[in-house]
Please model this.
Amino acid sequence: MKAPSAPSGWRAVGLAFVAGGAAAGVVAACGGVALVEFGLYDTTARTPHSAFMEWAAHTTYKRFTRRTADVQAPPAPPVFTGAQVQAGLQQYRRDCVACHGGPGVGRATWAQGVNPPPPYLLDVSRRYSARQLYFILDRGIKMSAMPAWGETRSPAELWNYVAVLENLPKLQPSQFTAQPPMGSVDDPSPTADLHR
Amino acid sequence: MSAIPRLAAPAAAAAALAACYPTPHPVRTVAGDAAHGRTVVVREACGSCHAIPGLVNADGRGGPPLDHFAQRTVIAGVLPNTPAGLSRWLSHPQAVVPGNAMPDMGLTPRQVQDVSAYLYSLK
Model:
């Protein structure tokens, strides 16, 4: 009886390619599982991200936000009132200044240890539209210290944050330090903001 | 008549002038750890206000770009770009220009030195 012959020519090349690709995929998957199960990745906040991870994480976040916010966030009001900016300023002092500082105002010292580092927000209205800012504030950011404020703040309050962010370059440092933010470590009332 | 005696007088004058007017460029080097300074710059989120070459996501437009920082002559429009001027600015920008947009970040003297070394590595 004649022995079966191996595939020849391009068919052989094609099969080898597919088999090699599948084998490489299996090895990669095993490597990934091993990385997770044996804890082989440095997850500490103190060690800076590699440039690759920095680029990958931040670019994904920027692109996803810009793409999704225009569909899922409500449209922004055409103008923000002075009352919204003032309310937003009070909320900002309470909720935001510790991590994000303000114009001429530093962050809390422990914010040095937050990774990814919370940015200063002076030019954030140039990077993102009002609707995109609302989206970020409402939904927060995974694997970062940025809360989803929509869990505990009303839509009106979220727009107040956006109102103050859009006006940050016009505000003075003294407006951010006039009183200790409610709920901060300096707030004299121990139960402020605990029962919202 | 050869060229050398004809050039001697102008050459001597140029040498004398150079002695009276030494190079105006200050020495911009700081004994600090530029690599650690870079880490501090990332951690302090300087790139959220300043465009800094070579740092991912350092593309802020709140403050001036920091490319070629070693060549800049003036800091914040008021201080000479020397190690002493830079140290003063980084330590207490609010004392130098009260109410300006750059906050006091509470950097230690060591951090100021290292950040200065990093900034002066931006030729």
Notes: Confidence is low (pLDDT under 50) at residues 185-196 of chain A.
